[in-house]
Amino acid sequence: MTAILELKDVSKRYPTGTVALTDISFSVDKGQFVSIIGPSGAGKSTLLRCINRLIDASGGEIRLEGENLMEMNKRTLRRTRVKIGMIFQHYNLVERLSVIENVLHGRLGYKNVFAGSLGIYSAEEKAKAIDILQSLGLEEQVYKRCDQLSGGQKQRVGIARALIQEPKLLLCDEPIASLDPNASKVIMDQLRSISKVMGITVLVNLHQVDVAMKYSDMIIGMKKGGVVFKGSAEEMKDETIFNIYGSEASELGIDIGESYAS
Ligand SMILES: Nc1ncnc2c1ncn2[C@@H]1O[C@H](COP(=O)(O)OP(=O)(O)O)[C@@H](O)[C@H]1O
Ligand SMILES: [Mg+2]
Questions:
Q1: Which of 37, 32, 40, 63 is nearest to 50 (CA)?
Q2: Other CB atoms within 10 A of residue 8 CB
Q3: From ligand 2's centre to the CA of 46, what distance in Å?
Q4: pLDDT exceeds cutoff 60 at 256
Q5: What sign does the CA torsion over 188, 236, 18, 23 have?
Q6: How many Å apart are CA 98 and CA 148, to the nearest integer?
Q7: What is the pLDDT of residue 119?
Q8: R_g of the chain, CA atoms, integer Å
Q9: Is 92 helix (H, G, I), strand (E, B) or coil?
Q10: CB of 24 within 8 A of CB of 11?
């Protein structure tokens, strides 16, 4: 199988001097569901931001479908960025706008600045937005303002906005950290189905080890900017979890599956 995403010795040092990533290497296949776990400050968000080039890595290679993202000029980068959808912990919606308007924002990467600012979307794009919202169970919410939605519904809008981009890769930074267990399960099930049914590669930063173990084809454990584990849920032992989280492990409660046993 060919890797859709390949990282080789990626490092990141912030202008403040903080070294957030050191020699990160891994590759991910098409349609794989990968979780990145690790304590606060491990570098998980930095890693996702480097992959979609919200920030520049300091060294190494990041390849999407074989093309090195770090060597792209602005124009190529703009074209490549639409292949990468992003989901955030706090949804990053425009709360005073309607659900469908927020979803259509996912098309902005395809438009020139002028068309985008005038909100010119084709009938086809609008129909597609409604289709996606239906598939995520939001058909009743299409014309509601986002500030009227629950957290779980807002996150589904975030997913719809990413999907209308027709991405190859979905990067999710703590997508369930602000949600209750029921809403979290809905979101995780949807992300899993996006990877398995639609063949979109999903990379999720997660704090909950049990969730990572339930959903992932591969888990990457990070600690202090480095990868300390890479493998399947079966390969992840209690010692591994203790190694990744240190003294935080007992607080997290590493017994597996309580709220997620199905
Ligand atoms: N914009 C920034 N400027 C300077 N240092 C940062 C910035 N963002 C994150 N860091 C630092 O980089 C390290 C990794 O942070 P982060 O990627 O947010 O970790 P995580 O998402 O795993 O909690 C931390 O030490 C953090 O303080
Ligand atoms: Mg983070």
A1: 63
A2: 15
A3: 7
A4: no
A5: negative
A6: 9
A7: 62
A8: 18
A9: coil
A10: yes
Instruction: Give dist(CA 65, CA 89) in Å, integer.
Output: 27
Is the pTM value of this prediction over 0.85? yes
Ligand 1 neighbourhood includes 81 CB (under 6 angstroms): no
Nearest alpha carbon to residue 251 among 208, 206, 211: 208
> Which ligand approaches the C-alpha of residue 20 most closely?
1
Three-state secondary structure call for residue 192: helix
* Amino acid present at 184: S
16: tokens are: 């403040």
Structure tokens given for 89: 């912990």
Q: Is the CB of 54 under 6 A from ligand 1?
A: no
Q: Return the percentage of the chain with pLDDT > 90, whole number.
A: 82
pLDDT, residue 257, reads 40
* Cα separation, 131 vs 29, whole angstroms: 27
Regarding the beta carbon of 152 and ligand 1, being less than 6 Å apart is answered: no
Q: What is the mean pLDDT of residues 213-240?
A: 96
Is 44 a pocket residue for ligand 1 (Cβ < 6 Å)? yes
CA–CA separation, 59 and 43 (whole Å)? 15
Report the candidate in 55, 52, 72, 2 with the shortest Cα–Cα distance to residue 30: 2
**Average of pLDDT values for 196-215?**
96
Side chain identity at residue 171, one-letter code:
L
Domain boundaries, the chain: 90-166
What token pair was written down for 130? Answer: 């409604």
Amino acid at 66: G
